[in-house]
Amino acid sequence: MPTVQIADRAVIRVAGPEAESFLQNILTPDLTVLGTDEARPGALLTPQGKILFDFLISRTGSDGFLLECSSETAQDFLKRLMLYKLRAKADVSLQEQEPVLVSWESDSASSHTDSGGIRDCRFPETVNVRRHQGGEMQAEASLEDWERLRIAHGVAESGSDYALGEAFPHDVLLDQNGGVGLRKGCYVGQEVVSRMHHRGTARRRLVIVRGEDPLPAPGGELTAEGRPLGKLGTVQGADGLAIVRIDRAAEARQAGTQVLAGTVPVTLRVPAYAGFSLDGTDESGPA
């Protein structure tokens, strides 16, 4: 199994008899469906529905949760959680820094072997991506290998693919990969997310980009006949991720207009797990 150490990650622990209800009432994922051997994506939103902090959440012990996030935002995230905690019977703490490693196996025949860690639910089960917080595993893969894996499966991360405070959950497909509980009760920003979902007003979506030649650097603009569609995020050679206006992408496809990343002709592809297309249709994702 290729294994890579992910730098600049931190882990916040929330534990106690009211930890689940406290987090359920402020975060986007539905914790009632969170298993004991998985890490699900999620976010804490602004009241206006934009992603303020993103993370992967998993269970620990009988009444605890681990929120893996960027080390750059960990202290601010911790302070915001403490602000919301009030009298909830839950302890919130930043864990002592330990390396976060990720391993994966793309051979479906061996995807269910015991490889330790917890499953990263942003990826299909056949890829079997496992996250390990601490431990003695040897990192033998590169960050470029990890980015190629994320690109291939349409997995966005803040900093690389979008800026915190600027993106809605729908923009980065949290409504499609289990990062938003669409049937759960209220949480911070829930009204905006629910309205966007039920009215089908999500106009920006993450897509996979394939260039005929190597793509420009991250931040490069995607256009069709000079009209902007979006900007590149993570890039590895001729492959990358981008958040695009799907209505404009649909118009370009229907008109047979070439989409360009700078001067490089590209094709756009929807991640396999997503329930929308570039012909203008958009379906609901998982709860």
Descriptive notes:
By secondary structure, the protein is an alpha+beta fold. It folds into 2 domains: 142 residues, Gyrase A, domain 2 (2-Layer Sandwich); 67 residues, Beta Barrel (Elongation Factor Tu (Ef-tu), domain 3). The chain is 17% helix and 31% strand. It is built from 5 helices and 15 strands. The strands form 2 sheets. A 9-stranded mixed beta sheet has the order 1-7-9-8-3-4-5-2-6, sandwiched between helices. Strands 10-13-12-11-14-15 form a 6-stranded antiparallel barrel. The longest helix has 12 residues. It is globular, with a radius of gyration of 19 Å. The chain starts with a strand and ends in an 18-residue tail after the last strand.
**Number of domain modules:** 2
Per CATH, the superfamily of the largest domain is Probable tRNA modification gtpase trme, domain 1
Could you tell me the radius of gyration in angstroms? 19 Å
Q: CATH topology of the largest domain, what is it called?
A: Gyrase A, domain 2
Name the helicity range. 10-25%
State the low-pLDDT regions, or none: none
Structural class of the helix and strand makeup? alpha+beta
